[in-house]
Specification:
The protein is α+β, with helices and mostly antiparallel strands. It has eleven helices and 18 strands. It has helices spanning 3-16, 31-47, 57-79, 172-186, 234-238, 294-317, 325-339, 341-346, 361-370, 373-396, 424-433, and strands spanning 50-53, 94-96, 102-106, 119-125, 129-133, 147-155, 158-166, 190-196, 202-211, 221-224, 250-254, 257-261, 265-268, 272-276, 287-291, 349-351, 357-359, 404-408. The chain is globular, with a radius of gyration of 27 Å.
């Protein structure tokens, strides 16, 4: 399989099966961590019985869905703890005094707190994408003669040719909508949509997904058909070759010092991740960015942890009607929560009938502010570690919860690694897609 086909398959995986397709910094791993995952898979495969799997599309979606949900839960735990198991729930959190201007996340380690002083930020301009809005044309028969046309798009130092056919009876609107679908499906870093004015005329709008100006360039993408392989003339007729809103870099001040960035999302001193959300209302209006006190950070980490747990429970509950073993997974998660029920109750965290956990905000705030830090964190660390082990197990072998018929058990102590047992879901997806 060539790289183009593999990329197409991966995009299909993300848009069809993955719950959100969002990656984070915690999806990267060191060699030692990857080696540990490999060794765990080998061990699982040696002991796994031979079985006939349910390979229906519903089972495929379930297997990948719970794997991705387990990954999301694992990343949530990592986001409140970092990569160090000893620092569970001790991740510091950042604050912004004006989230209409900027929001912030603390991305450093605990040792970086002393080197992460508060700072002020004033936003003068947000980073913007490039926009090419075409000519507004009446919703009537297109003036271009029926034939095969093409145009070239240059973006990210690459050139792409788009070919399309104009047939008898095509209208301006139908061709614009067809081109919008063609460009969006190509996924080259552009988005396309058809706009309509008050008189019913329509125009094709192209926007870059990236913001800011590349070094030494005055555009992010350009559209032309002067040297294209098929008939030209469509670019001028549609008007999509002209820039109607140029890309722009963000302009802001940090502690009064002028800065620029090609994106509205950037890092400061490698300890803050800052996202610009709006312009300062007037000169001198700033947002103060800093690190929250320990008890506020702990409360926010606990709230985020419980939110990740509930997201996993909701994602699993969505399969209760179609996948019987999803109830088993929910019961296993509820069993983990029940082991630590007394400790959770003390903090105002209660189990609900649907398997989720609820938080009494006042009781949690009181416990975090008045109890000894270790008194709060130690039992929660045990609960968090249990969730991390469970999410890792589900992520390693989601096929454990898919309907299957056991054919034979392996001879204990004399098993051999069967490399496809725990990754059968990937094979099922390839078989149905390729």
């Amino acid at each position: 399989m060539n790289i183009t086909a593999l990329n197409t398959f991966y995009n299909h995986y993300l848009t069809t099966y993955a719950p959100n397709g969002i990656n984070s910094q915690y999806d990267t791993h060191k060699k030692s961590e990857l080696r540990g995952v490999y060794n765990s898979i080998v061990k699982l495969n040696k002991e796994a019985p031979l079985a006939i799997l349910d390979t229906s599309r519903a089972s495929q979606a379930f297997a990948v869905g719970i794997k991705e949900s387990a990954r999301a839960l694992h990343n949530t735990i990592a986001s409140v703890s970092g990569r160090d198991a000893e620092s569970l729930l001790e991740k510091k959190t950042a604050f912004s005094t004006n989230e209409d201007i900027a929001t912030a996340t603390f991305i450093g380690d605990a040792k970086d707190v002393d080197d992460a002083p508060a700072f002020s930020i004033e936003v003068r301009r947000l980073a913007a994408e490039q926009v090419n809005t075409g000519n507004y044309l009446p919703d009537g028969e297109i003036a271009l003669t029926p034939d095969t046309y093409s145009f070239d798009v240059g973006i990210n130092s690459l050139n792409y040719e788009f070919q399309f056919l104009i047939n008898e009876g095509d209208t301006n609107r139908s061709v614009q909508e067809r081109l919008a679908r063609l460009i969006n499906n190509a996924e080259i870093g552009l988005s396309a949509e058809v706009l309509e004015d008050d008189e019913g005329n329509s125009a094709l709008k192209l926007s870059s997904k990236a913001t800011g100006l590349p070094d030494g360039r005055d555009d992010i993408f350009h559209v032309s058909d002067t040297n294209t392989s098929k008939l030209s003339g469509a670019v001028d007729y549609l008007g999509i070759g002209e820039i109607t809103r140029p890309a722009a870099n963000a302009e802001f001040l940090i502690n009064g010092s002028e800065r620029t960035a090609s994106s509205n999302h950037f890092t400061v001193e490698q300890v803050y991740s800052v996202n610009l959300t709006g312009l300062s209302p007037s000169e001198g209006d700033t947002a103060e960015i800093g690190v929250k006190p320990d008890h506020e950070s702990l409360k926010e980490n606990i709230t985020k942890l419980i939110g990740g747990y509930n997201d996993f429970i909701r994602a699993t509950a969505a399969y209760l009607d179609s996948q019987p073993k999803s109830a088993r997974l929910m019961n296993e998660m509820a069993g983990i929560a029940s082991v630590y029920a007394n400790d959770l109750d003390t903090l105002g965290i209660y189990s609900e009938e649907n398997g989720e956990l609820s938080i009494d905000d006042e009781r949690l705030s009181y416990a975090v502010e008045h109890a000894d830090n270790e008194e709060v964190t130690e039992p929660l660390k045990d609960f968090t570690q249990a969730l991390m082990r469970k999410s890792s197990g589900v992520s390693l072998n989601p096929m454990n919860y898919v309907n299957k018929i056991i054919v034979a058990y392996k001879n204990p102590g004399h098993g051999y690694a069967s490399p496809y047992v725990t990754s059968a879901y990937s094979g099922m997806m390839f078989n149905s897609y390729c």
